[in-house]
Design goal:
Structural class: alpha/beta
Number of strands: 7
Shape: globular
Order of helices and strands: HHEEEHHHHHEEHHHHEHEH
Helix content: 40-55%
Largest sheet: 4 strands, mixed
Distance between the termini: 106 Å
Strand order of the largest sheet: 6-2-1-7
Radius of gyration: 24 Å
């Protein structure tokens, strides 16, 4: 009797059931691995430690993590509208319309790959955020040196849809802005705004917003390439009706981008008691004291803080006296 080479009639049904079971198992794993928005915000750690006076005032801000440059967690209201618009136009035009995965962009990307045409990426902000989330159970979502595998891409798409159901759109955008790497060691919009532009994130204008959005796509690209991408973002903002983006001058933007990428305005230390602060942190490290998390910012997140016995008014008077 000859062996059966063709599959049995019920084989497609079995394959579909197996695929459905695999998808359900993946969705269950992803659902358990993904944290809540409040957990992500609570786990966020700045690369700086704040040394407080006995009255609770900030005496000194010191950088204590040399591996990354991360500022404070910022609420979405503390980020300029220009940056929010630039990021959505650059990375995910249908962010407020899709449910985590932009299937229209996926279809366009697949069709472009079939015909060797260049298209916009199909990865949404929500999918990118899924790959940025920390936690041992979410390691399978992170991109490795060789890019993401097919199971990772599928898991990222499932995770994005889970996030979109559990989180609000403003929470997704807020978390993304605080967790996304921008350039080199700079992570998050607070560190980017203070390092490259020397200002708070709520003060970024349309040019600065376009440069920031361009860095998301190519964090370590040459200034000329970043400027070219930023010019495209500015044109998109003008077409979308952003009042400040009219009259795009790409030549001036090239010079502006080059100067910004060379700037390092976010000092490693700032305050009125630098020597005392360093000594206090060294002493805390020797005695293995835990850095307190008792001071929460107005959006509910905690910064690394060490409270001292030094009086802020007395310290200011001493500094002024010595200066005179």
């Amino acid at each position: 009797m000859r062996p059966r080479c063709a599959p049995r009639g019920d084989a497609p049904v079995r394959w579909r059931r197996a695929l459905a079971a695999a998808c359900l198992a993946l969705a269950s794993t992803v659902s358990l691995a993904l944290p809540t928005f409040d957990e992500v915000r609570a786990d966020f750690r700045s690369s700086e430690t704040l040394v407080l006076s006995r009255e609770g005032e900030m005496l000194q801000r010191l950088r204590t993590d040399a591996t990354v440059r991360r500022g404070q967690w910022l609420g979405l209201a503390d980020v300029s509208p220009a940056l929010r618009q630039a990021l959505v136009l650059s990375e995910d035009r249908r962010f407020y319309e899709h449910s985590g995965v932009d299937w229209a962009a996926v279809s366009a990307a697949a069709w472009g790959n079939l015909w060797n045409q260049r298209t916009r990426g199909a990865s949404t902000l929500t999918m990118q955020l899924a790959g940025l989330l920390d936690g041992p159970d979410a390691d399978f979502l992170r991109q490795g040196p060789g890019g993401r595998s097919v199971p990772q891409k599928l898991g990222q798409a499932v995770a994005a849809q889970v996030l979109d159901r559990r989180w609000r759109k403003d929470q997704i955008l807020e978390a993304y802005l605080n967790l996304v790497p921008f350039r080199g060691e700079i992570v998050g919009i607070d560190a980017l705004a203070r390092t490259l532009f020397g200002k708070a994130a709520h003060g970024l204008d349309e040019r600065e917003a376009a440069v920031a959005a361009a860095l998301v796509r190519a964090p370590n690209a040459r200034p000329a390439l970043v400027a070219r991408r930023a010019c495209g973002v500015l044109r998109d903002m003008r077409r979308a009706g952003h009042s400040g983006a009219r009259g795009t001058d790409c030549d001036a933007l090239d010079l502006f981008t080059t100067a910004a990428l060379q700037r390092r305005a976010f000092d490693a230390s700032e305050g009125i008691a630098p020597h005392f602060a360093r000594q206090l942190l060294r002493q805390a490290g020797r005695t293995q004291e835990r850095v307190s998390q008792d001071g929460a910012s107005r959006d509910g997140t905690a910064a690394q803080r060490v409270r001292s016995t030094l009086s802020a008014p007395l310290q200011r008077m001493a500094v002024d006296t010595l200066t005179r």
